[in-house]
Amino acid sequence: MREAFFSQMCGDFEFILTSPIKMMTAKISADIKGDSKFGDRIEAYFTTAGIKKVSMDVIVRFFNKRLGKNVCETQHTLVFVDSRSGKFTHIPESIKTAVLKYQESA
Fold first, then answer.
1. DSSP string for 33-97
2. Spacing of C-alpha 30 from chain mean position
3. Contact 78, 28 (CB under 8 A)
4. Which pLDDT score is estimated for 97?
């Protein structure tokens, strides 16, 4: 899901994919808040938080339309690494610009 978001929101995402900059998941958590049944319509809502120089948190909330409530929330801490040096690198500007529009207030 996050790759689909970035490919739609970042005009240079194909370039980023072929560059030495790699996006890695450093931490992931899931809070399951309810059960869904096969065939339930689920909508996913993407937000961001904790945007720093080399990392950010991506939060995805899954809303079950039949139940009318969120049934799961995931949080992914993403880091960016230069594969040539093996060191952390800045979040690409187009990605940072795209996610700032979806940043949660503190």
1. -S---TT--EEEEEEEE---SSEEEEEEEEEETTTTEEEEEEEEEEEEEETTTTEE-PPPHHHHH
2. 13
3. no
4. 92
Low-confidence ranges of the chain (pLDDT < 50): none
Candidates 9, 2, 1; CA nearest to 101 is 9
Q: What is the pTM of this model?
A: 0.84
Helix 2-9 to helix 93-100 angle (10° resolution) is 100
The answer to whether the CB of 13 falls within 8 A of the CB of 69 is no
* Whole-number pLDDT of residue 1: 66
Tally Cβ neighbours within 10 Å of residue 28. Answer: 11
Instruction: Quote the CA–CA distance of 9 and 25 in Å, as a whole number.
Output: 19
C-alpha count within 13 angstroms, C-beta hemisphere, residue 53: 4
